[in-house]
Amino acid sequence: MRVPLSWLREYVDLAADATPEDVLAAMVSVGFEEEDVHRFDITGPVVVGQVLSFDDEPQSNGKTIRWCQVDVGEAQGGVRGIVCGAHNFAVGDKVVVTLPGAVLPGPFPIAARKTYGHVSDGMIASARELGLGDEHNGILILSELGVDAPVGADAIALLGLDDVAVDINVTPDRGYAFSVRGVAREYSHATGAAFRDPAERDFAELQPGAGHTAVVDDVAPVRGRVGASEFVTRVVRGVDPSRPTPPWMVARLTLAGMRSLGILIDITNYVMLELGNPIHGYDLDKLTGSITVRRALPGEKMTTLDGQERALHVEDLLITDESGPIGLAGVMGGGTTEMTETTRNVLIEAATFDPTTIARSARRHKLPSEASKRFERGVDPLIPFVAARRVADLMVELAGGTLTDEGGALFSEVFVSEIELPAGFVQGLIGVDYTDAEIAGSLATIGAEVTATDAGWTVIPPTWRPDLTDKWTLAEEVARIQGLDRIPSVLPTPPSGRGLTALQEGRRRVANALAAAGLVETPAFPFTTEAQNDLHGSASGEHLPSIRLANALDGAAPYLRRSLIPGLLQTAHRNISRGLTDLAIFETGIVFLPEPGVVYGTDEVPPLGVRPSDETLAQLNASIPPQHRHVAALFTGNVSARQPGRPAEAAGLSEALDAVRVIAAAAGVEIDVVQTQRAALHPGRAGSLTAAGVEVGYVGELHPAVAESADLPGRAVVVELDLDRILELAGPRSVAASLSTYPAATQDVSLVLPAEVAAAEVRAALADGAGALLESIRLVDDYRGEGVPEGQKSLTFALRFRAEDRTLTAAEGTEAKLAGVAVASERFGATLRD
After folding, report:
1. Can you say how many angstroms the Cα of residue 304 is from the centroid of all Cα atoms in its chain?
2. What is the count of structural domains for the chain?
3. Which of 176, 332, 345, 441 is deepest in the core (most CB within 10 A)?
4. Do the beta carbons of residue 251 and residue 160 sit within 8 Å?
5. Which long-range contacts does 550-553 make (Cβ < 8 Å, 24+ apart)?
6. Has residue 606 been placed in a domain?
7. In what helix (H) or strand (E) does residue 685 lie, and over which residues does it extend?
8. Same domain, 334 and 284
9. Rounded to whole angstroms, how far apart are CA atoms 672 and 661?
10. CATH number at residue 820
């Protein structure tokens, strides 16, 4: 909100020497953020001049200039010769003259310079050159502005160009500060300066009048609230829209960030900025019949003031007459009844509209406006009558109109709920020992009605503060008014025994381990298609239930993911398209696994600001599908680049299996691989991952068709694990065992057994038989060929044995190895290879 200081001074006692920085500092002290300071950026001699004579001189370029003699006053050197290209002035007109040494916005320094055969000793200025508007219809003639001043007078002060505006950031919950009235009140809170409410004006009661009252016919209220609760109309007849807007009003509107658009529209904008209630003016002669406020009909359209025809939604609130829609309520008026240069009679509208309705309409039509910005934050319901009368009085004063007794008012009862504020609550919440007088005084200062009770206070917030809804917001107001600097900057001592949970620690270990192994973490959006969920979420690719979002960010991907792989494929494609072809990426994230036949979601959302009951929380939790945290990785391209004497090494299953080992070590669990089949993976190059006999994920090379559909140019291998599940299977972290000081005994064993037996099962059998002396076992070879019978294979394992209390003999190591071979022989018919 940009507020000119001259305007602010009308409603609060602002020191004569107060700088913009002083005002901003005061606003910061009551919780507003400073944005900027706005000026006209005009310096130097800018004075009132009078045209004494001029000569029209045609030029070779087809342009005719005027060589003028302009009196700028004895103090400024008397008569000066000035070249001017404009032709909208006459001899005797008083104009604004910028003399050498002046600097106009731009910056544009003024100097005496030779042009068109003359030395122009200054410049006659237009409104645009002075920063008073965008129009450039010739120079500024003071008589057309209704302004008169002696020759040589300071034109900067005369036109209000010496004013300055402060710009503050208004948060959405404090819409009352989108007005000079609200900012003046807050400055009063900050400094204790006397505040004069512009809404407290001596107006006569509004009578029902001779017509033009509004009828509210809202058959589709939003959230049970009718679209318009107050609607006031006033009629001013005989206005002259050609009258100039006074310079002081133009200057204030310009500093506030609004263009001057003619006296009638300027007045409505001026009052909106002053009181915070948006105003709309209609050309009364263009209205047909009475006014009705209603919702749009299916298929209805209207043309707004910006010339755009808009298809209306049935929730849009409209201002209509017998001809149809004439305004999109609270957002923008219609083109059929707008005020123009032919307007002679004006119907003024001031209303209070439902914030939710206005916010939805503005966003639905992508039509943010100064009006919607205020209505969607809440307008003081007691201000429309004052605002309408203020506009009417200004139109009478500045546009020559006559206020009639026509018009009317529709008011609903304004009820503000009481808030119970217990004694001691504010002190306990804020951490400051406020006295009872400070608490009650602070709330009374902001306009609340405070009544003491045995338990504390009963507080009725002011009508312009819809953000004050409970005792917590009241406590915040006390802290703000008493000074945020009183709140001690002492952090509370955290209770002992808190910190990351075991699952959180485990997730971090796994992510850090993968990153340390050279993989790059690439989080992705959790949205995908139903087909991708079916393909990657199941082994066979069958259809699985998926959660569809009601308001998806991307209509092409409206489902919550069942797997992390689709996101990694998108990331890989994006990187490859930018020339990054060698990728090792991973993600840890939530997947959503709804149960078949279960309906998730609920239409019953508890109200804000009220803690849901345990039963409500249980219902909300039951409406959420099961969510598991997975970890997945993808490898494609080369793991090592081509070097002299060494070819490039492509990523393959070994890299994916290494990632599995990294995850297993970080999680503290052993993971085995068993060959399997999956619809998304290459036949024969897919493995099921198990831990403690439970399937926890899969690993393998993407099926060529899947890789091609993802626009991956080469092979890609993936791995995905249920991270939460493997951390649960790992159990609590045990204390690291001490290292044995005794040497290890190493032996190899080669077993011949049926080819269909999984190596992981043979490894488990050897480990079971070898017993406690076995420290590690690792598969080092899988041979099928000459010397091994057809249909069988030879698996070679490297065994390492160690005892904690002695040095093992070779015989002991051999005995343990043979015990393992015996178990493998019993389970699978394995024999030692010769």
Report:
1. 27
2. 6
3. 176
4. yes
5. 550/601, 552/527, 553/525, 553/527
6. no
7. strand 681-691
8. yes
9. 9
10. 3.30.70.380
- CA terminus-to-terminus distance, the chain: 90
Instruction: Establish if 573 belongs to a structural domain.
Output: yes
- Structural element, H or E, at residue 812: helix 810-828
Residue position matching structure tokens 């504010």: 426
> What are the start-end ranges of the H helices in 695-756?
704-709, 723-730
Report the DSSP beta bridge partners of residue 392: none
- Per-block average pLDDT, block size 10, for the chain (834 residues)? 93 90 93 90 90 91 91 90 91 93 89 91 89 76 87 90 92 91 94 90 53 81 84 93 90 91 94 95 91 92 90 92 91 91 94 92 92 92 91 93 87 88 92 93 94 93 92 94 88 74 91 96 94 92 89 90 95 93 95 88 74 84 90 93 87 92 93 90 92 93 93 92 93 70 91 90 92 91 90 93 89 91 93 86
Q: What backbone torsions phi and psi does residue 115 show, to the nearest 5 degrees?
A: -155, 140
Distance CA(801)–CA(495), nearest Å, equals: 46
| Beta carbons of 529 and 557 less than 8 angstroms apart | yes
Residue-number span of the structural domain to which 78 is assigned: 46-158
Evaluate whether 669 touches 691 at the Cβ level (below 8 Å).
yes
Cβ atoms within 10 A of the Cβ of 415, count? 8
Residue 298, token pair as written in the block? 């299916």
DSSP string for residues in 644-695? TTB--EE--HHHHHHHHHHHHHHHT---EEEE---TTEEEEEEEEEEETTEE
pTM of model > 0.85: no
| Continuous segment of H or E residues that includes residue 387 | helix 384-399
- Is residue 513 a contact partner of residue 721, using CB atoms and an 8 Å limit? no
The answer as to whether 522 is a domain residue is yes
